[in-house]
Write the structure tokens for this entry.
Amino acid sequence: MTLLGDGADVRVGEERLARAELFARAGAVAARVAGARVVAVHAEASASTVVAVVGGLLAGVPVVPVPPDSGPDERAHILGDSGAELLLGRGAALPGDGPERLPVDGLGHGDVASGEPPPDATALILYTSGTTGAPKGVLLSRRAVAAGLDALAEAWEWTAGDVVVHGLPLFHVHGLVLGVLGALRAGSPLVHTVRPRPEAYARAAREHGGSLYFGVPTVWSRVGQDASAAAGLRGARLLVSGSAPLPAPVFERLAARTGHRPVERYGMTETLITVSARAAGERVPGHVGTPLPGVRTRLAAEDGTPVPADGETPGELQLRAPTLFDGYLGRPDATAAAFTADGWFRTGDIAAVRPDGVHRIVGRASTDLIKSGGYRIGAGEVEDALLAHPAVREAAVVGTPHPDLGEQVTAFVVADGVTPAALTDFVAARLSAHKRPRTVLLRETLPRNAMGKVVKSRLV
């Protein structure tokens, strides 16, 4: 199975690699790492990272991207747990600890081997965020990655004629699998802006003809607030948002200023992208579209009984897909717990599905489904209501203990010149009374991870 396709030019910041140069350098990496059990890559935003990852894939060796800003304990866990025998990357950036270091910028060129690893071989070991314990290694096969990218190419009408632009981290599904491997497989030129700044996205449109843009909600929020950058994206073909829910007010602002209604999609490290709006289809704020080809979904209540697809009733999203992972590395217990008795993957996310199959993600079962006074309240709906207030810049809603209700709706808000009481009244005027925040706490900032998601466990 040819995972990487025909490829095209890759730019990372000021570095440019023509396709022939990329594969020649990656060929030298492949020759050096051939036979290794696992290799890690210091996944900074650089051309060397792309060369290292492609080299590992060409050699058929599982690749473990390591966040460049990971602390010593996290890095030691990822390297030790994965069993990585080599740490690849740009020589000047490689940390001094861990396994043997291999600077890929000094290996020169090599030929690409003619053989192709089997489809079920592990391509990537991506580590989870570790919000419920030590990060777990997610085993993704070459078959799963190829199936996921081909499904997205169909859904987004993604071809070699596109120019992909993003500035996302190269150690997650979004930035690495979609943003790098997707471009290589489709044959699209890639422009990586190093950081996802609005002006950099607009410059890529102006200088490189960017057509297919990837971003997380924080990126699109900033683009929507920058009139000049937003205007610069009017010539794009698609703006795609993922990795976290896109607030409806951000969707509408972005659409008004760029002329594009963004494409929203849903996925996880364990599943890759499974649900998405289509390039030629309906795009509704707060909705992530319909299942991709080969993907089946269902909703289940807490007791396992089916939840109707009525667009309103929430349930745990469960799925089957050709993009599913092959388990957690060395964790058969955790792997077994991730599936139902009849073989469906339990995402841990709460969703509602319309009769026409369009999905809306309510949030994580552990943090975004609030059970208050017998009601089930989705945190995202309350967050969208708060973000509709002109003074509110950021909002995160969680359930906190309440002696009578069980849980109460508590909001953490970044805002200017507005009182907590005014925000509570604002929400109460738009949503049912039981959904209004009983407590609103004003903050200077909200804690976020590398992908722009609010880390709600650090709020309470």
About this structure: Residues 13 and 136 are 31 Å apart (CA to CA).
